[in-house]
Amino acid sequence: MSATFALALSVAMHVTWNLMARHLPRTSSPLWWVLLIHLMLFAPWGLWELATTVVWSPKMTLLLIVSATANVIYFNGLAQAYELAPVALVYPLVRSSPLLIAIWGTLFFDQNLQPIAWLGIGISALGLWIMASSARQGSDRHAFRWSLVAMLATSVYSLSDKAATEHVPTFMGLVGFLSVGYLASWIGMTVRMWRHTQRWMPAQRIGMPSMLIGGTCIGLAYALVIHAMRQMPAAEVVSYTNAGIVFATVLSIFLFKDKVGWQKRILGALIISSGLGVLAMR
Fold first, then answer.
1. Residue 108, Cβ density class (10 Å: 0-12 exposed, 13-18 middle, ≥19 buried)
2. Is 111 helix (H, G, I), strand (E, B) or coil?
3. At a CB cut-off of 8 Å and minimum separation 6, what does 56 contact?
4. Which of 87-91, 172-176, 245-249 has the highest mean predicted lDDT (pLDDT)?
5. Would you call 23 exposed, middle or buried from its count of C-beta atoms within 10 A (0-12, 13-18, 19+)?
6. Average model confidence (pLDDT) for the chain?
7. Axis-axis angle for helices 98-108, 140-164 (nearest 10)
8. Are 34 and 266 in contact (CB under 8 A)?
9. Using alpha carbons only, how large is the chain's radius of gyration in Å?
10. Rounded distance between C-alpha atoms, residue 94 and residue 153, angstroms
């Protein structure tokens, strides 16, 4: 499977899940449900592939631990930020992580990018920040801190996942690799829920179609991203996935008539697209 096809399919799944999640009540904790469905549907096969096709070494074990830990920190940081500010503010900030991925990759992994790639990533990050500024409400300062935590965690697990592709030969093995992080994150979300509500599961359940589609999308979309990292630098791959934000923004404004801050959101989407166009010229 080519990196281009994997990224296109991943973006389609990402947009599908995000548009669906817009219509789900936040009190039902949709992410908790879809992670659970992923773990039930895909994790058993993926973990079997991971266990039987990988030649295990201390390095591979360390990569798995680092990735799983970063996933837990990411989901916790995202949840904390969402309690303080809207998704429209938090998510674009978190998705500007390719800048950090490029910096860490250059400093510690000798993953040198071409100057035009740096330019494309920087332009896209500018578009994301403009998009985030369209929703400045809530406790922005504290939300920014937690968004930064989630962004840092994203940069860590992206680079560890990129390194893991050298050791995991099959696509389902990659699904198993990320399933370890998803399991740890789901357990962390459950413990956090208990501390806040004294319940081990959400009080409200989302519909079965939403659970199945969401579990499939979230279960496979990022595995496709990791697969694309076999052929491309991690910073570039994660940048390209931000095309999903552009599509979701356009659809939400013109199809679902969400006009809140639409001028800045459109401007941000145009700048992100320009950055991705520059990146594609490398």
1. exposed
2. coil
3. none
4. 172-176
5. exposed
6. 88
7. 50
8. no
9. 18
10. 9
DSSP reduced 3-state for 129:
helix
Convert 188-220 to b/e letters by CB count within 10 Å (16 or more is b): bbbeebeeeeeeeebeeebeeebbebbbbbbbb
pLDDT in tens, 201-224: 888 888 888 889 989 998 899 999
**pLDDT for the residue numbered 140:** 64
Task: Identify which has the larger pLDDT, 133 or 66.
Answer: 66
Residue 258 structure tokens = 């969400």
Sign of CA dihedral 236, 238, 244, 249: negative
The set of residues, in sequence order, having a beta carbon less than 8 Å from that of 64 and lying 6+ positions away, is: 164, 177, 180
Query: What is the spatial distance between Cα 104 and Cα 122, in angstroms, rounded to a whole number?
Result: 15
Q: What is the mean predicted confidence (pLDDT) over 98-112?
A: 87
Question: Which of 61 and 197 is assigned the larger pLDDT?
Answer: 61
